[in-house]
Amino acid sequence: MDHLIGLARRLARYGAWFGGILILGAAVVISVEIIIRKFFIMSIGGADELSTFALAIGSAWAFSFTMLERAHVRIESLYVVLPTRLCALIDAIAQLIFTIIIAFMAWYGFQVFSSSWSMSSRTLSPLATPLAIPQFLWAAGLIFFLLVSSLLLTRAVLALVVGDLDTVRRLIGPRSVKQELDEELVVVGRHREMSGEGKQ
After folding, report:
1. Going by C-beta distance under 8 Å and a sequence separation of 6 or more, which residues neighbour residue 25?
2. For 185-190, what is the mean pLDDT?
3. What are residue 76's phi and psi, to 5 degrees?
4. With contact defined as beta carbons under 8 Å apart, do 35 and 95 qualify?
5. Which of 26, 70, 85, 142 has the smallest number of Cβ neighbours within 10 A?
6. Are 18 and 61 in contact (CB under 8 A)?
7. Residue 127 neighbours by CB under 8 Å, 6+ apart
8. Residue 197 DSSP one-character state
9. What does the alpha-carbon distance between residue 172 and residue 167 come to, in Å, rounded to a whole number?
10. Alpha-carbon distance 77 to 80, whole Å?
């Protein structure tokens, strides 16, 4: 199962890059649209439509990567003072609830895609984009998110049953202050290397 989590992590990273490229592309299209409107009083049409698709698809594929990196925002006011075993149980319950919510999201996403596909729906913009295409990519991201969440939940529960609390925390628990600090130091180090400061 750890091998599957490793595979999911690689796929999620690719998905996050894909989503990031889409959002950057949408930003370029919007910028071009603004310039054309200002200086040429015309429009390329569909810029807002494409940016909406890019944001939805990019977000859906980034969700899995964020979960695997444990980067979701968490409120830990009481969590930090509770016993380790109880914290692990709370993490598992939270992951279960999260997975149920994601299941509803994925189901809804698939239903939206299925409806557009069966009716051959298109947007009302000049592009007349077949809705099934972006909705498929969006729904696929949500379904992958569900698979990742279910995989983490299953592995964490198995670890909890045998008392492997470190694995539970590593998979679905919040990152420690040290982990956050180490990550920030790595980012700072990369910035210094890129700017040439680290070559003195």
Report:
1. 54
2. 71
3. -120, 35
4. no
5. 85
6. yes
7. 45, 46, 49, 50
8. G
9. 8
10. 7
State yes or no: pLDDT of 84 exceeds 60: yes
pLDDT at residue 178, as a whole number:
65
- The radius of gyration computed from the CA coordinates of the chain, to the nearest angstrom, equals 21
Q: What token pair was written down for 11? A: 């796929």
Residue whose C-alpha is closest to residue 72's, from 53, 93, 106, 98:
98
Domains of the chain: total: 1
Q: What is the pLDDT of residues 124-158, one digit of tens each?
A: 877 788 999 999 999 999 999 999 999 999 999 99
Amino acid at 188: V
Contact (CB, 8 A) for 145 and 63: yes
Q: Are 132 and 126 in contact (CB under 8 A)?
A: no
* pLDDT of 55 strictly over 80: yes
Secondary structure (3-state) at 122: strand
Instruction: Calculate mean pLDDT across residues 58-67.
Output: 93
For 148, the token pair is 């990742």
Among candidate residues 6, 143, 166, the one with its CA nearest the CA of residue 87: 166
Contacts of 145 (CB under 8 A, 6+ apart): 60, 63, 64, 67, 102, 105, 106
Percent of the chain scored above 70 by pLDDT? 90
Q: Which domain holds residue 26?
A: 2-199
Q: Measure the CA angle with vertex 153, ends 164 and 87; round to 5°.
A: 50
